[in-house]
C-alpha cells in the first residue's frame, strides 16, 4: 500500500536556491529573525470539472479522491514542514472562529485521506442535503525530517448557475472562500481551465475579472488537451503560448493532460509517460517542453515559488540588519573580555565617559545621541524639567493660596492662561492639592474686622495692624511646603528614571547585565538617597522665612506694587460711586434681565456718598489696606519661592549633579575591590558574549547570501547629474546668455537650475570637462557671467569672441580644442551633439 505522500516528489516543488533560503530562515528563526514571514502557498483555482484536483495530484503525487466530488465542497490545505519525526495532524479550521477540531486516523497511507475527508464533512455539516459547500477548511499538517516548507491548497470549483443542489447561497459561499485565498499576497495562483468546448464559452476570463486575480502571481493551467476540438486547437495553443492579449499572464500558461480516473490505471510514473507520449504525438508538440507536462510544471512552480520567496528577502534583510545592529550594540556594551583588574577599570572608564556625555546632552537639552531617538520623549530630560517647572509655577499660582477673593457672582478676576500641552502634562502628572476656598471681598473684610478687634495692640486708632497681615499671609501660604515637596519628588523620580534608562543604554539591561545592576544599586541609589536629604534640607531652608513670616520684601518694590493694588481697589470704589450718582439723577437703571428698577436716592444719601473716604464695608480697622499688604507680600514671596525651588533646589542640588554620578575620575579613584564588585564578569556574561559573536557572524553571512538573491531594482542605463544654482529675479522668465550663445542641444531651463544628463566617456576619449571657478548669484541665473554679448573670464571681457572656463582652462567658443577628435568637431559654436561626453538636457 502506498503512503499518503512522496517527500522526494514534493521537494521538486522547492528549488535548490529556495531550499538553501529555507535552511537559512530556519537557522535565523532561532535568533528571532523571519519568524513571522508569510511563505508562498500554491492555490489551485478554477471552474467545476476543470481538473483542478488532477493538477494538484499530478504535481504532488497525492491521490485526491476525484470520483465522488469529495474534495470539491470545501478547501483542503496541505502544509509540509521540517520536524524531528514523521507526524501528521488533521484538523478542521472553522470559519466562525470555533476552536479547531482534530480528526482521528489510523496511519499515513493513501487510503487514509478519504476517511479524513469524510470526518471533515461531518464536522462541517455537509453530510445532509441542507448544506452543499462550507467555508470551513480541512488542514493537513505534515512534518518530516528534512522536509522543506510547502503549502498546497485545493479550492472548490467556482460556478455561476444554480442547479438542484447548488443555490445562490452556495455561489456566494464558494466565491467568498475563493476570494479570501486569492487576495492573500503570498498565494501563487494556478488558474485551471479545460481545453474542451467552444473557447467563446470559457469562463476563466470572467473569473479573472470577477475575483480581481493579480496576473503578476498567476499561472494558467490548460487541462484536457486530449479533448480539444480541431477548430478550437488554434486558440488554445495560442493561449498556451501566452499570445492571447486579453488573457496574458505574467507567469504564462502551461498545458497538462489529466489522468482518466476510469480508464487510466497507471501509477504516477505511468501517468507521466502517457502524458509525454501524448504531447509528442499530437498537435500540442509545438508547445515548448518547458510549458507542458507535470514534470515541467513542477520545475516552473519551484522557480515561481523561489521568485515569490525572493520578494520577502528585502524585508528579511531589513530585520537581519536591525538584529545585527542590536547584537553589535550589545557587544559594545558588554565590551571585550576583562579577565584582570586593569581591563575591568578600563571598561568602567569607557562606560563612565559615555554616560557622562549622554547626561550632559540631556541636561543641556541637546538630543543628538542615539539614546534620544530610541526612547520616548519623556526621557528628554531638559524638556521634562521645563514642563515640570511650568506645571509647578501654574499650580502654585492657581492653587497655592488658602483662599481667593471672588466677585459677587462667584467668579475670580483674571486668571492664568492654561495651554493645551500643560493640561495634558498635568493630567499625566497631577499635583494632589485642593482648590482654594472662595470668598467675597465683603466677607473677607468683615472677617478681618473681627480679627483686628481681637488682636489690637498699641497702634493708633484708624491705622492697620501689620501683625494681622503677617498672620493672614502665613495662613494663605500654608500649602506651599506640601506642593513644593511634591514637585521635588516628581522631578527626582523623573531624573532617576532617566539615569537608570541611560545607564542601561550605555552598559546594558539591568535584568541581564550584572554590571548595570551593580552600578544602579551601589552608585545610583546612594546618589539619589543623598540628594533627597539635601533637597529636603533646602526646602526647609526656603520655606522657613515664609512659615515664620520674617522674610521682609524690598521696600521700593513692595511700595510700588501695594500702591498699584490699592489704587486699583480705590478706582473700583470710585466707579461704583459714579454709577450710583448717575443712577440718582436718572432715578432708574436696568437690571440683569433688562428691566427698569428704581435706584433713586435722597439728598442725605447722596451727601454721604460724595464725602465718604472709605467704602462702608471696610470698617474702622481698614481691612482693605490689610488685604492689600498681604496680597502684595504674597505675590512677591510666591515669585521668590518658586524661583528658589526651581533654581536653587532642583537645578543646583539635583540636575547639575547628575552628570557626576558616574565619571572617569570617580572610576579612577575606586579601590580594586569596588572595581571587581562592579565589573567582574560572570560565566553568564562570558557565555552571552560568545553567543552574540556567533550570532553576529551568522547574520553577516546571511546578509551576504540574501544580497545575492534579493530582487533587482531597475537601474537607469545612464547616470543623471543635476546642477542647481541660486535663482535670480529673471531665472524663470529668461534663458541665460550661456544657453542662448552656446545653443546646448536639449538643455532646458527649470526654475533657476539647468539639468544635464551626463553620458559616460567613450573609449580613448578624454574625461568630460567640468565647470570650475566661482558661480555667483550676480553672474547669472546659472552661475555663469551674463553680459549681453560677452563672457567674462579671469577678469577679462571680450566682445569679439566668447570664452568660458572649463577644468581651469580658458576656451574659445567655435575653436576646436586639441583634445577633440574629428568626430567631435564643434557645431553651433560649441561641440557636436553626438559627442559621448556631451550633456543632453533633461527636464
From TrEMBL:
- Residue spans making up a coiled coil are 675-702
UniProt-listed InterPro entries? Dynamin (IPR022812), Dynamin_GTPase (IPR001401), Dynamin_N (IPR045063), Dynamin_stalk (IPR000375), G_DYNAMIN_dom (IPR030381), GED_dom (IPR020850), P-loop_NTPase (IPR027417)
Instruction: Point to the regions of Pro residues compositional bias.
Output: 760-769
Molecular function terms from GO:
GTP binding; GTPase activity; microtubule binding
Keyword Nucleus attached? no
Entry's Gene Ontology BP terms = endocytosis; intracellular distribution of mitochondria; mitochondrial fission; peroxisome fission
User: Residue ranges of region Disordered?
Assistant: 758-843
Q: Which UniProt keywords apply?
A: Coiled coil, GTP-binding, Nucleotide-binding
One Gene Ontology term, aspect cellular component = microtubule
Question: Which stretches make up the GED domain?
Answer: 623-714
Which residues are in the Dynamin-type G domain?
A: 36-314
Q: Enumerate composition-biased segments (Polar residues).
A: 783-802
Q: Which SMART domains match?
A: DYNc (SM00053)
Q: Where is the sequence biased in composition, kind Low complexity?
A: 829-843
- This chain's protein is named Dynamin family protein
Q: What is the lineage of its organism?
A: Eukaryota, Fungi, Dikarya, Ascomycota, Pezizomycotina
Amino acid at each position: 500500500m502506498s503512503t499518503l505522500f512522496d517527500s522526494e516528489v514534493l521537494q521538486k516543488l522547492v528549488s535548490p536556491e529556495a531550499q538553501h533560503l529555507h535552511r537559512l530562515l530556519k537557522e535565523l528563526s532561532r535568533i528571532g529573525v523571519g519568524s513571522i514571514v508569510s511563505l508562498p502557498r500554491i492555490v489551485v483555482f478554477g471552474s467545476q470539472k476543470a481538473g483542478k484536483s488532477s493538477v494538484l495530484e499530478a504535481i504532488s503525487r497525492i491521490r485526491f479522491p476525484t470520483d465522488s466530488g469529495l474534495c470539491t465542497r470545501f478547501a483542503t490545505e496541505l502544509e509540509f514542514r521540517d520536524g524531528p519525526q514523521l507526524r501528521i495532524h488533521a484538523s478542521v479550521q472553522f470559519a466562525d472562529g470555533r476552536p479547531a477540531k482534530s480528526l482521528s486516523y489510523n496511519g499515513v497511507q493513501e487510503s487514509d485521506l478519504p476517511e479524513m475527508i469524510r470526518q471533515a464533512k461531518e464536522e462541517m455539516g455537509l453530510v445532509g442535503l441542507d448544506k452543499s459547500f462550507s467555508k470551513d477548511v480541512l488542514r493537513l499538517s505534515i512534518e518530516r525530517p528534512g522536509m522543506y516548507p510547502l503549502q498546497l491548497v485545493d479550492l472548490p470549483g467556482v460556478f455561476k448557475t444554480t442547479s438542484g443542489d447548488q443555490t445562490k447561497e452556495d455561489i456566494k459561499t464558494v466565491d467568498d472562500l475563493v476570494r479570501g485565498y486569492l487576495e492573500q499576497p503570498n498565494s501563487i495562483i494556478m488558474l485551471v481551465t479545460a481545453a474542451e468546448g467552444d473557447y467563446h464559452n470559457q469562463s476563466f476570463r470572467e473569473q479573472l475579472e470577477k475575483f480581481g486575480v493579480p496576473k503578476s502571481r498567476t499561472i494558467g493551467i490548460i487541462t484536457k488537451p486530449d479533448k480539444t476540438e480541431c477548430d478550437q486547437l488554434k486558440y488554445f495553443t495560442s493561449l498556451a503560448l501566452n499570445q492571447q492579449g486579453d488573457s496574458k499572464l505574467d507567469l504564462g500558461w502551461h498545458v497538462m493532460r489529466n489522468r482518466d480516473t476510469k480508464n487510466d490505471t497507471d501509477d504516477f510514473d505511468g501517468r507521466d509517460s502517457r502524458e509525454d507520449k501524448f504531447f509528442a504525438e499530437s498537435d500540442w508538440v509545438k508547445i515548448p517542453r518547458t510549458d507542458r507536462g507535470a514534470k515541467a510544471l513542477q520545475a516552473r512552480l519551484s522557480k515561481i515559488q523561489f521568485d515569490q520567496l525572493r520578494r520577502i528577502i528585502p524585508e528579511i534583510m531589513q530585520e537581519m540588519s536591525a538584529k545585527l545592529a542590536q547584537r553589535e550594540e550589545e557587544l559594545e556594551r558588554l565590551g571585550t573580555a576583562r579577565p584582570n583588574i586593569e581591563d575591568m577599570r578600563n571598561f568602567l572608564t569607557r562606560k563612565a565617559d559615555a554616560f557622562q556625555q549622554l547626561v550632559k546632552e540631556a541636561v543641556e537639552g541637546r538630543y543628538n545621541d542615539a539614546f534620544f531617538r530610541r526612547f520616548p520623549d519623556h526621557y528628554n530630560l531638559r524638556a521634562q524639567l521645563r514642563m515640570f517647572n511650568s506645571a509647578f509655577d501654574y499650580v502654585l499660582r492657581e492653587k497655592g493660596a488658602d483662599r481667593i477673593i471672588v466677585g459677587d457672582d462667584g467668579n475670580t478676576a483674571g486668571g492664568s492662561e492654561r495651554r493645551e500641552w500643560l493640561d495634558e502634562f498635568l493630567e499625566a502628572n497631577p499635583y494632589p492639592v485642593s482648590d482654594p476656598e472662595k470668598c467675597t471681598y465683603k466677607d473677607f473684610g468683615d472677617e478681618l474686622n473681627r480679627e483686628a478687634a481681637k488682636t489690637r495692640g498699641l497702634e493708633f486708632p484708624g491705622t492697620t495692624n501689620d501683625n494681622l497681615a503677617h498672620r493672614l499671609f502665613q495662613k494663605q501660604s500654608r500649602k506651599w511646603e506640601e506642593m513644593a515637596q511634591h514637585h521635588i519628588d516628581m522631578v527626582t523620580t523623573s531624573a532617576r528614571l532617566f539615569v537608570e534608562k541611560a545607564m542601561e543604554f550605555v552598559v546594558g539591561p539591568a535584568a541581564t547585565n550584572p554590571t548595570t545592576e551593580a552600578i544602579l544599586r551601589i552608585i545610583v541609589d546612594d546618589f539619589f538617597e543623598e540628594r533627597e536629604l539635601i533637597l529636603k534640607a533646602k526646602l526647609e531652608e526656603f520655606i522657613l522665612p515664609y512659615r515664620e513670616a520674617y522674610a521682609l520684601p524690598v521696600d521700593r518694590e513692595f511700595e510700588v506694587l501695594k500702591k498699584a493694588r490699592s489704587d486699583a481697589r480705590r478706582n473700583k470704589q470710585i466707579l461704583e460711586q459714579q454709577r450710583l450718582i448717575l443712577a440718582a439723577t436718572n432715578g432708574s437703571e436696568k437690571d440683569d434681565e433688562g428691566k427698569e428698577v428704581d435706584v433713586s436716592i435722597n439728598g442725605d444719601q447722596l451727601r454721604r456718598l460724595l464725602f465718604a473716604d472709605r467704602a462702608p464695608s471696610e470698617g474702622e480697622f481698614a481691612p482693605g489696606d490689610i488685604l492689600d499688604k498681604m496680597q502684595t507680600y504674597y505675590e512677591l514671596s510666591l515669585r521668590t519661592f518658586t524661583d528658589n525651588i526651581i533654581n536653587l533646589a532642583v537645578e543646583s542640588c539635583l540636575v547639575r549633579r547628575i552628570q557626576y554620578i558616574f565619571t572617569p575620575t570617580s572610576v579612577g579613584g575606586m579601590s580594586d575591590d569596588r572595581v571587581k564588585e562592579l565589573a567582574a564578569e560572570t560565566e553568564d556574561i562570558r557565555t552571552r558574549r560568545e553567543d552574540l559573536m556567533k550570532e553576529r557572524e551568522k547574520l553577516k553571512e546571511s546578509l551576504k547570501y540574501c544580497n545575492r538573491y534579493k530582487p533587482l531594482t531597475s537601474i537607469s542605463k545612464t547616470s543623471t547629474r543635476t546642477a542647481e544654482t541660486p535663482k535670480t529675479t529673471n531665472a524663470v522668465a529668461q534663458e541665460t546668455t550661456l544657453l542662448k550663445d552656446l545653443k546646448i542641444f536639449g538643455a532646458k531651463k527649470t526654475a533657476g537650475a539647468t539639468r544635464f544628463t551626463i553620458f559616460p566617456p567613450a573609449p580613448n576619449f578624454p574625461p568630460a570637462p567640468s565647470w570650475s571657478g566661482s558661480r555667483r548669484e550676480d553672474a547669472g541665473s546659472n552661475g555663469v557671467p551674463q553680459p549681453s554679448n560677452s563672457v567674462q573670464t579671469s577678469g577679462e571681457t571680450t566682445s569679439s569672441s566668447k570664452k568660458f572656463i572649463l577644468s581651469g582652462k580658458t576656451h574659445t567658443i567655435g575653436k576646436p580644442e586639441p583634445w577633440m577628435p574629428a568626430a567631435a568637431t564643434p557645431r553651433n559654436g560649441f561641440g557636436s551633439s553626438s559627442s559621448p561626453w556631451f550633456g543632453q538636457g533633461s527636464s
